[in-house]
């Protein structure tokens, strides 16, 4: 999110990414009238998780009065996927093996 916010400011300058997202959501579903839900599935069972995702979160904003639902999905993709690294060619027995040589 920090990197996305920095790029947003460089591109659009005047308002922050958070302010812009807040205003856009408020225009669509009036946030003060919304019930907000988060979706936190197990990563193996997540139908929304993109290939190469390191983490993701999903929020649903539900406005009963307007009968509207907005799904808001954030996802962080590995640089390997973003840079076009062929993830299909990797063959790790366990997901953790890709991180074995990294300092954490």
From TrEMBL:
One of its GO terms (molecular function) is RNA polymerase III core binding. One of its GO terms (biological process) is negative regulation of transcription by RNA polymerase III. GO terms for cellular component: nucleus. InterPro entries: Maf1, Maf1_sf. Pfam families: Maf1 (PF09174). It comes from the Eukaryota. This is Repressor of RNA polymerase III transcription MAF1 homolog. It comes from Rubroshorea leprosula. The lineage of its organism: Eukaryota, Viridiplantae, Streptophyta, Embryophyta, Tracheophyta.
């Amino acid at each position: 999110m920090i990197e996305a916010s920095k790029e947003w400011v460089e591109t659009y300058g005047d308002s922050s990414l958070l302010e812009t997202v807040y205003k856009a959501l408020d225009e669509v579903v009036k946030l003060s009238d919304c019930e907000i839900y988060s979706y936190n599935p197990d990563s193996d069972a997540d139908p929304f998780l993109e290939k190469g995702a390191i983490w993701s979160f999903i929020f649903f904003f539900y406005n009963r009065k307007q009968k509207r639902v907005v799904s808001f999905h954030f996802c962080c993709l590995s640089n390997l996927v973003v840079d076009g690294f062929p993830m299909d060619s990797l063959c790790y027995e366990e997901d953790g093996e890709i991180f074995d040589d990294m300092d954490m």
